[in-house]
Amino acid sequence: MTLQVFVVAFIVSFFGSIPPGTINITVMQMGVQGKIRAAYFLVVGACIVEFFYALLVVRFQIFLNNNLTFTHHFTLITGLVLTALGLYSIFSKSSSSSIKVNTGAKGRTGFLKGIILGFLNPLAVPFWLAVTAYLQQNQWIKLTGPGFWAYLFGIFLGSVIVLFLAVRLGNRFTRISDNRLLVHVLPGAAFLTLGIYNFYQWAIQ
Questions:
Q1: The whole model's pTM is what?
Q2: Pick the residue with more confidence: 19 or 7?
Q3: Is there a contact between 191 and 126 (Cβ–Cβ < 8 Å)?
Q4: Residues 130, 16: contact at Cβ < 8 Å?
Q5: What DSSP designation does 144 have?
Q6: How many angstroms from the chain centroid is the CA of residue 94?
Q7: How far apart are CA 102 and CA 110, in angstroms?
Q8: What is the sign of the dihedral through the CA atoms of 88, 19, 9 and 51?
Q9: How far is CA 87 from the centre of its chain?
Q10: Shortest CA distance to 183 belongs to which of 22, 8, 21?
């Protein structure tokens, strides 16, 4: 089960990090400009912040599991968040050309910039809150014992690998991140489906 938890977290984190955002577009542009070392430091800084965001989310999920009355109502909240994420993704017009970034970081200063960009990523918490709740409700993951850390490290590693690929692939990664159907419409439709499913679960409980 621990391996399954890690794999699920890795896959969700990997594909969740592809849509254009300030962090992945920044490291992509730094890779194109040859600022490879600074880009790697930025990736590590940003992913460390996401790791701690996910840690807080998982702790909150454990609290929910120990408070069944609140868990019932949180199913509705999860449905609302997933639906909002789905609509946001479907109607999002963000692309690598529409996101303006400053790629002036050098060397280890990239790490500090990564920390700052990580903290300024407002969708990380609701995203992992909704996804974690859904995965738990459907018993795809268990956040007890080793599964707790397997989930967190799966999230961390998935984000790191996508961003490292963005650094190395540069403009080729742009073609992937600018494919609106692949990175916006399809994930958005998936979130909407999960949101509707949560509404159904809440209604029959």
A1: 0.72
A2: 7
A3: no
A4: no
A5: S
A6: 16
A7: 11
A8: negative
A9: 16
A10: 21
